[in-house]
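Many introductory courses stop at the sequence. We go one step further.
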Amino acid sequence: QAHFGLGLVLGALGVGAASNDELRRLLADVPWEKTMRAAAQEMKVVPLLALTALLKAFAGGPPDVFVSVGVLAAGGAAIAAAALVVLPLVSGLGPSGRAPRTAAAVGAFGHALLALAAFPAGDVGVQLTCAWALARAAAAAQAGVALQRALALGVGPLSETLADLELVATGLAPVAGGLALLDAHVWGPGGVTILPIQPAIYCGALLALVLLARLGLGAYMVGGSELDFYFKVDAAGGKQLEPARFAAAALVCGSFGLAVARVVAGTFRIEVSTGGFAIEWTEQLTAAAAKLAVLIAGAFVAEVACGGSAACGDDDEEGATGAEGDVPINGLDMSGAPGAVARSKGAAGSLPTFRYGKALLAPAHTVLLGLVAMRMVSSQGAEPGGGEGLSIGDIVRAPFQLGFAFTGGAVFLQVITLLIYTATKAAPAPAAAADPPFDVTGTLCWRPVGASAKKVASAVRCITLVMLLGGLALGCLGLGPFRFIVGGAAAATVWYSLAPVEARSTAAAVTAAGAGAMFSSLGDFLESRRQAQEEAAARRAAAMAKALEAESAPAKQGSGAGSAVKAGAKGPAKAAGTPDKKDGAKRRHR
């Protein structure tokens, strides 16, 4: 909830500053985006902690002290580290060196407990066993990195090895673990026959290759991705390790594809008849998680198939990895995060489309785990659409249980919009293409040519933002409204009490401007709806008047024709009688 809440605040501030002039003016001199993204980087371990807790909860059994205390310590340390990043912005105080080291020490302790936790007891299946082993390996890497930060050790071979292992493990473990949880939920505990298609095995093999290359050959990773990187040995390239690296990455992608196909096969059912075909799914949350997993796996496959880091082994190391402090890619500052997209210094043109898509899908790994968690929470009651009939409680709970599904739909819209934008903006020379105009949420700010196209693009953008931010809010409330509301209110109260007078006035002005903009937008929407209803009523009244006029027109024409007939009947008689009188007069005259 804290992880999603931070993203919700970042997205709300970004959308508000982009659409409201008053908010943009108030936040012009405040480095809010850089600070919030730095805080999000401190919480990048949250998906790994959520995976560990979900694996333990799904396996059942008695509570494990190591898991409980480890998740609490590591999660609390991540939240504290994020708070320490935001503290200078709120309070105006300078950064403190002792508090972050203390938080890192607590985080190292928590991750060490998770790495030493025992495997779940009982018949949990091959899926959860492999995922648990990968989660423990990732926790060990996180413990080493946190311990290095706590002891303030300098850069060296050990620290670089831990950083490489952390990058690969933290980026792959949530996806592999989420697929394992979905597979175990759909098919139940599996045996050794499905062992060859478990992604956690090949992710572990890639970790072993990284460790072997570092310790055995002195090679280090160059590249900002879990799969698309290459090894380098001092000044010489590590070309001899490239086949092994590519094979391991291809096996990881293949296992992702097979695991997703297995989940989809157990979730969706196609019925074909003479009248057509129908696609059915067992549960809405599981179906949404399966579709999101298809998108994530497709991004990994596209990265390995089209990636070029390994082909750039002769490039400068700093240019390939991206240096610290690189400017954000139109709001997508993913440097240092799992699946990062680092813009090379002095690189000409834009990045490949699949890299933008990978950056858009980086937060979707946590959304996948959120869907799995919501499925486990909703299993305690009735899931929407899962029974014969719906009660009032089901109808009330449905929007909150489906919140993360709405967020997954927004991610789909973001990727589809990016593909359409790339197809329409394709240039003969890729280096001449410009970066897609993303906002802070990763949604395109696209204004195509043509009035109709602009209306469609604006409508798609509004729908995407509502589904993205609204889905996050509903999903967080669905996981536990009391914790989310009370925790957010407590954090806001603490920040407000620590802030100086100037910061409090700025915060109050931003809140007032945001609330005013929201109510103004709501008022504008209601006014537009009222005007549309009035125009529709006027059109209906005009149509009814025209219909009545059309109905009365034949009656008038009929009465006019009758009068003409009567006049015509009298006319000939009179005309016939006139010659007789004239003839009689003539006869008398004669």
